[in-house]
Design a protein that fits this description.
The protein contains six helices and no strands. With 141 residues, the protein is mainly alpha-helical. It starts with 6 loop residues before the first helix and ends with a helix. The protein binds iron/sulfur cluster.
């Protein structure tokens, strides 16, 4: 059985999720088990790597990945597009916001266009979309 994350990191991630929902105008998924699984995954990475690396992706080398900020929660896709592919930050129906994603982004292909119910909140790095798309080509991750 995989080792459980520490209570300290779990509590830290719970606080972070609550605050970030408020700040970004999103909510956690109505299915609490989804939220719990992501929180535990983030807390485990916090313990093992010292950073809350996104738990819903595969990384060839996690130590190498944390040198980039791309997938440190809240990741670039969240901060630029308000899109959370882990379904940690969603609208009230549990759908990820996709309206700001490029048309060819996997989120658009999976969920279609999901409008942002709180466009006045979140996306603090919205001006970085061009860099993010360049990175997606050069460093697929
Ligand atoms: S997709 Fe981004 S915002 Fe969502 S849990 Fe992963 S790192 Fe956090």
């Amino acid at each position: 059985m995989p080792e459980q994350p520490s209570e300290k990191s779990i509590a830290r991630m719970r606080r972070f999720v609550e605050k970030y929902c408020e700040k970004s105008g999103t909510t956690t998924h109505p299915d609490k088990e989804i939220t719990e699984a992501v929180v535990l995954g983030l807390a485990k990475h916090q313990d093992d790597l010292g950073r809350p690396l996104c738990p819903c992706r595969f990384y060839p080398d996690k130590q190498e990945e944390i040198k980039h900020r791309t997938w440190i929660c809240a990741c670039d896709d969240m901060q630029i597009y308000k899109y959370c592919h882990c379904l940690l930050f969603t609208n009230k129906e549990g759908m990820p916001i996709t309206e700001y994603l490029p048309d060819d982004h996997e989120g658009r292909q999976l969920y279609g266009v999901v409008a942002d119910p709180t466009p006045n909140k979140g996306r603090p790095r919205r001006d970085k979309a061009a860099e993010r798309e360049q990175e997606r080509i050069e460093r697929p991750s």
